[in-house]
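Purpose: get a first structural picture of the assembly so the mutagenesis plan has something to point at.
Setup: two entries, given in the order below. No constraints added.
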Amino acid sequence: EIMLTQSPGTLSLSPGERATLSCRASQSVTNNYLTWYQQKPGQAPRLLIYGTSSRASGIPDRFSGSGSGTDFTLTISRLEPEDFAVYYCHHYGSARLTFGGGTRVEI
Amino acid sequence: DVQLLESGGGLVQPGGSLRLSCVASGFTFSNFIMGWVRQAPGKGLEWVSVISADGRSPFYADSVKGRFTMSRDNPKDTLFLQMNSLRAEDTAVYYCAKEKPGSGWSFDYWGQGTLVTVSS
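Result (structure tokens, whole complex):
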């Protein structure tokens, strides 16, 4: 079973800055099924990126996903006030789903 | 618009049972894989279970296998999660979610969640 480690735990940035969030897998991800969600307090998660780099419907192009093997990245090119939230990655493989622990992006 | 509406949460004693429901609307329910994801208070997301579109193939996280049963009633556009032998560590908000087809169980629509509290 692949385990996912997200870093950093908390990222303190200002609006307009670039955010780089990491999701590291314990084994190589061979199927490209790496997904990113955003979650704000009191809300359900929102799908951002699936298949490592495909943006979900309605997601602004300041959000991008990349990576391969064991290292994956979510980049927010210029933080908007509404982007301050917690971000989770997950991987699908062998009929199971694994979530990372999350990264909080705060002002 | 796609909507998912969970119900059935509440307070239950350790060892007890609870049945969650999720009513779907705004899409052809029987065509999509569906899942349950939970979130303990102040914690991260944890996958619970997924079921195939036809309901024949459920999959479970190790933490709930043998205690939880996921099912669906396609004519009634409803998803279920039967939870037995509940433990304190099952306390969480439970979300039902719809898969984006072909995305490796990535969920593009989520309900608002229902809170399950296991406590004596």
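Chain B has a mean pLDDT of 97.
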